[in-house]
Specification:
This protein is an alpha/beta fold and about 350 residues long. It contains 15 helices and five strands. Helix 2 runs antiparallel to helix 3.
Length: about 350
């Protein structure tokens, strides 16, 4: 006999549940708030089984969380360690945590980078409290800090204001072209090149605990270049493998793209490109019905084509190729797969600000 749908007692309204879910920093507690939020969705609350599929919990565990919330309200969701932390976790008062956070905004005394042991030593010196390095890590997380690799950003990259202006300017230009060319279908595409060669590509991979996977290396410096054209709104793409990057080869790729995408001459393509010399030179003959639209210099994050290269390099990861012919065969297979799976590509290149133009 099927079980009845669980009814959630409205200790908190849906808006408050949403706020609790979004603000929560503890992963497990955050997931429990998500369970209650999904079961309390106005108009059409989810079934227990659906919630389990989304959260990764079993149906019985979802019911247990719901019963706990119904009985205790928010207290039934909050992590027990937060409500009654151990003695070492209580070591720092709110004022001391504030002072610690402010100190962590500048480098340590040795000029290097913060680590668990360094934070533990800082707490010892500043507050006279002895804690283990593991507890020091927990203090960092409690302050809302996470260990991250900084994203590289060129010093000459466009500022936030310049990027916003570029997006608004592009939107205006597209609307203008649609008004001037009502008989044409105006589409925004993006183009970029990627260098791929015999230098190995190393990527993380799953392995059994205690076993270190091996990636064989034989570095050589011979290259092929993939010219990529992507349409963010649909995920359609055109990929060409060519021997080098220069104006002559760019001309070949551009002509092939125009022939493949606009054979009926019923489209106007606005093509986003970076400001590489072979894109901006006067010697490049741009096909009719294509407008080259340069993005700000040193700002690749505005070019959605950049997002397709990790999917291309994924196929080459942790492999050694004897020569460029062997590499090219794998690249052709991967490029064909990407072109035949536009929805997968769209998931990477479908920038919301471009799709809304």
């Amino acid at each position: 006999m099927p079980r009845t749908r669980i009814k959630i007692i409205p200790h908190l309204d849906y808006a408050e549940l949403t706020q609790r879910y979004r603000r929560c920093r503890e992963v497990k507690e955050r997931t429990r708030w998500l369970v209650i939020r999904l079961l309390s969705r106005p108009g059409k609350p989810m079934k227990v089984e659906q919630v389990g599929e989304i959260t990764g919990f079993s149906a019985d565990w979802v019911r247990k969380i719901a019963r706990s919330y119904n009985a205790l309200g928010a207290e039934g969701i909050v992590d027990g360690h937060q409500k009654s932390p151990g003695g070492k976790q209580k070591a720092l008062t709110p004022e001391q945590q504030k002072q610690l956070f402010e100190r962590l905004q500048s480098p340590p005394d040795d000029g290097g980078l913060w680590s668990g042991p360094k934070v533990g030593e800082l707490i010892k010196q500043q507050f006279g409290i002895h804690i283990h390095r593991t507890t020091a890590w927990k203090q960092l997380k409690r302050l809302g800090l996470t260990l991250q690799v900084p994203r590289p950003l060129h010093e000459k990259s466009a500022t936030s204001e310049q990027r916003t202006f570029f997006k608004a300017q592009l939107k205006f230009f597209v609307r203008l072209m649609r008004w001037l060319c009502p008989h044409k279908q105006v589409e925004v595409w993006a183009q970029d090149e990627a260098r791929l060669g015999l230098k190995p590509v190393v990527r993380r991979t799953w392995a059994l605990k205690g076993q270190r996977p091996i990636s064989h290396h034989y570095p050589r410096y011979k290259w092929l270049y993939t010219y990529g054209f992507v349409h963010p709104q649909t995920g359609n793409s055109c990929l060409f493998i060519l021997p080098r990057v220069n104006t002559t080869v760019m001309q070949i790729a551009l002509n092939a793209f125009a022939t493949q995408i606009n054979s009926r001459k019923d489209k106007l393509i606005i093509l986003l490109v970076d400001q590489a010399g072979w894109h901006t030179t006067r010697h490049l003959i741009v096909p009719q019905d294509i407008i080259m639209y340069p993005i700000p210099p040193y700002t690749p994050q505005l070019n959605p084509t950049e997002c397709i290269w990790p999917m291309l390099r994924e196929r080459l990861a942790n492999k050694v190729f004897d020569n460029l012919d062997a590499l090219e065969a794998v690249l052709i297979e991967r490029c064909q797969w990407l072109m035949n799976n536009p929805m997968t590509v769209k998931g990477e290149v479908g920038f919301s600000w471009l799709c809304s133009i």
